[in-house]
Design brief:
The complex is a heterodimer of chains A (113) and B (113). Chain A is mainly β. Helix content of chain A is 0%, strand content 49%. Chain A is built from no helices and eleven strands. The mean pLDDT of chain B is 94.
């Protein structure tokens, strides 16, 4: 079974620029999550999708972050404009249902300079 | 708001020792708790998931316990090996019917050969 795919692996941008991350979940997984992991911290949930609908985006900074999941499969997370404090690893995860089979991708490491 | 705390933040032990990692959470109204492992530069791997109705869950040399009433969980690693070196994170559901997770900061474990 193929894992959760994320790209790019690394990204360096200047503050105030925009950036987008892509995630392809495990085939058949209805639920997709984006997490932000700042160095030395545990992952923090940004948004949860169920198929192509948003279930929880209460911790997403909506003034600069946006996410979509077209056709209930792939997802993109965008930051515009980026701030220095957005430097983190952005992890995508998917699950078939509930918490069983929760699978993470390797993440995108973003550095904002 | 659910908060998860992990103690110790870091641990270094010689190979072969048995060890215990601790996790506490502030809201005991959880329906499960999950332990993950994170290797440097990689995503998270689910190790054990304990349902709220369970007291323990075992997988190989790993044993996780859950005491909902006191808001605590422990991860016991028997006969530690250098390959167990990683960061171990515990996580509980964010609540409100969503499947996102709230994580602790993790315990960084080093097993000395």
């Amino acid at each position: 079974e193929a894992g959760v795919a994320q790209s790019p692996r690394y990204k360096i941008i200047e503050k105030r620029q925009s950036v987008a991350f892509w995630c392809n979940p495990i085939s058949g997984h209805a639920t997709l999550y984006w997490y932000q992991q700042i160095l030395g911290q545990g992952p923090k949930l940004l948004i949860q999708f169920q198929n192509n609908g948003v279930v929880d985006d209460s911790q997403l900074p909506k003034d600069r972050f946006s996410a979509e999941r077209l056709k209930g499969v792939d997802s993109t997370l965008k930051i515009q404009p980026a701030k220095l404090e957005d430097s983190a690893v952005y992890l995508c995860a998917s699950s078939p249902q509930g918490h069983y089979g929760y699978t993470f991708g390797s993440g995108t490491r973003l550095t904002v300079v | 708001k659910q908060e998860v705390t992990q103690i110790p933040a870091a641990l270094s032990v010689p190979e072969g020792e048995n060890l215990v990692l601790n996790c506490s959470f502030t809201d005991s109204a959880i329906y499960n708790l999950q332990w993950f492992r994170q290797d440097p530069g990689k995503g998270l791997t689910s190790l054990l998931l304990i349902q709220s109705s369970q007291r323990e869950q075992t997988s190989g040399r790993l044993n996780a316990s859950l005491d909902k009433s006191s808001g605590r969980s422990t991860l016991y690693i028997a006969a530690s090996q250098p390959g167990d070196s990683a960061t171990y994170l515990c996580a509980v559901p964010v609540g409100g019917g969503a499947d996102g997770l709230t994580f602790g900061k993790g315990t960084h474990l080093i097993i000395q050969p």
